[in-house]
Each structure stands twice: as C-alpha cells, then as structure tokens.
Specification:
It is built from 2 helices and no strands. The protein is mainly alpha-helical. It has a domain of 53 residues. Helix 1 runs antiparallel to helix 2.
Length: 82
C-alpha cells in the first residue's frame, strides 16, 4: 500500500474527494430545480391573488421558475466540468 492511499479504498485522497464532490452535486441538483419552480409558481400565485387573474400568473411564474432552474443547473454543471 502506498503512503498516499486511504486504507481499505485503494484510492488517493484527491480521487475520493472528487467522487464525493460529484455525488454532492448530483444530490443537490434536483432540489435546485424543484425550488426554483416552486418559487416561481408561488410568486405567480401571489400576482394572481393580487390581480385576480387566475391561473395565468401561476403558469407564467412556474415556467419562468423552470427556465431559471434549468439555467442554474447548466451553470453548476459547467462549473463542475472545468
């Protein structure tokens, strides 16, 4: 066993840290997308409630939240690839 390997894994600490970073990113991404859709939908619902224009604000807010979530996912994934 080399000195730089972790006992029992056969991997160097930097390799294990990279794998853990990828797992953490993969676990985080669904929550980012869901949170942005919910935030956009809630803002749209608030606009609908104030202007009495149901369901257009909810649909537009949800769609904008979805677009923002996809943009954030792509930004985080492109940062991880570098």
């Amino acid at each position: 066993m080399a000195v730089s390997e972790q006992p029992g894994t056969g991997k160097r600490p930097t390799e294990a840290a990279g794998v853990l970073r990828q797992v953490a990113t993969a676990m985080e991404l669904p929550f980012v997308l869901l949170g942005s859709v919910l935030a956009g939908g809630l803002l749209g619902y608030a606009v609908d409630y104030g202007l009495h224009t149901r369901p257009f604000g909810l649909l537009i807010g949800g769609a904008l939240g979805f677009a923002a979530g996809i943009r954030e996912l792509l930004r985080r994934l492109s940062k991880d690839v570098r």
